[in-house]
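Course assignment 3, question 2. Fill in each field.
Student: A.L.
Task: Predict the tertiary structure for the chain below.
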Amino acid sequence: MYLGQEFEQHSHYRTSKYGTVHAYLRKKTVLLFRCDCCQEVFKRDKGNMDPKRLNNNFYHVCGNCDSKKFAQEKGVEARKI
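Answer field:
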């Protein structure tokens, strides 16, 4: 289940060619999902997701669960209907 999006900000340091250390920030958009198999909340980078899948018409499975087994169970449920 799609829950929403949030932003993560990371700070990094780099050294210029003159030896000066500069701090800079990177902001990343992260999407929040609830696993349809184990109900655990997990995050994915927005760049790794197809924008068409950002709704509740699709099933979302976390990395801890077996997505292929989950898909087979859903196929069996659909056939029973």
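Instructor remarks: Residues 37 and 70 are 7 Å apart (CA to CA). The longest helix spans residues 67-80.
Grade: pending
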